[in-house]
Amino acid sequence: MKNKTKSNCVFGIVFLVFFSSCSETSSQAQPKPVASVEEQIKTKFTGEVLPPVTSSCFAGAYYRKAFSSKDYWLGIGGTVVLPTLTYDLTRINPNKLGTYLDNASIYLGGTSDDQETDIGMTWEVIREADGSVSKERKAFRPFLRRTGYKSGQTALYKNAPATSDYYWYPGETISMSIELIEEKKLKFIVEGAGKKYEEIFEVDGYQKGFMANYKRVNAIDQVSNEGKPVQPTTAKVTGAKWLEVYLYRSINSLVVKAPMHSKRFTDMQCPAQRYFVLSSSGESDESIDIFGSK
To answer: Are 247 and 76 in contact (CB under 8 A)?
Structure first.
């Protein structure tokens, strides 16, 4: 009888241990399923680096900048309505009669391995039908700028040719993009209003194995003022609207366009928020008006 009782006790203990083990296993949280590629594109990629919350302004201009995290991005693009520049007529450029000390630009760019690029549109002089160069700025023209790189590649600034094929005007809608298509080469495309400009831009610091950040910028630039406090002006740039902005990224060996929504960029309004009127109605659109400080 004692042996039977002992056997029952052992069985009970084993049963309790087994039951406890099963209960513990069943109560553990199940692994969260990996989001689909479509969902990652819309929200966040697996392992995606988040952008910093804030960043310091660089003095010299009034600008609205949205820049991505430093990650394995391959470029940036978007569709934008070009703005209108209203000058401060008292701020004449003494070194270039017919122009002013404030100007408008709207562009993309990035930084990879400490090499910076600014690539997009700036309000520029044009070549008139008679072959002369206008004294005043009359149209947006594509420009490309890079800083120097440790490979020995020198800094460079260039414009698209001064022909009517490459002039765009306030109120026109254009698409712009820069994409790392192969090592050390960014492909820049501007298209809209029946015109198109395309160029392969050599940038040694941009390589697919390097982490990089990319940006979009709307600005009132100020002549010969880089690194200095902004100058008081009544100039304003109004009517710009990004209809969409996206970042390029490779996933499963396929390059996709991921919306540059508010969780994918650092918000910069420089030198202060009071110079900007911003509004948005979607995940990656934004209307931007910029006002000087006078």
So the answer is: yes
Amino acid at 18: F
pLDDT of residue 30: 61
The DSSP code sequence of the chain is -HHHHHHHHHHHHHHHHHHHHHHHHHHSPPPPPPPPHHHHHHS--TTPPPPPS--PPPSSSEEEEEE--SBBEEEEEEEEE--EEE--TT-B-TTSTT-BSEEEEEEEEEEETTEEEEEEEEEE--B-TTSPBPSS--EEEEEEEE---TTSPPPEEEE--SSGGG-B-TT-EEEEEEEEEETTEEEEEEEETTEEEEEEEE-TT--TTS-EEEEEEEEEEETT-TTSPPPP---EEEEEEEEEEEEEEEETTEEEEEE--GGGSEEEEES-GGGEEEE-SSSS-EEEEEE---
Residue 216 banded pLDDT, cuts 50, 70, 90:
very high
* pTM, to two decimals: 0.88
d(CA 246, CA 257) in angstroms, rounded, equals 6
> How far is it, in rounded angstroms, from Cα 284 to Cα 60?
27
Q: What letter represents residue 236's amino acid? A: K
d(CA 79, CA 74): 18
Structure tokens at 89: 């007529």
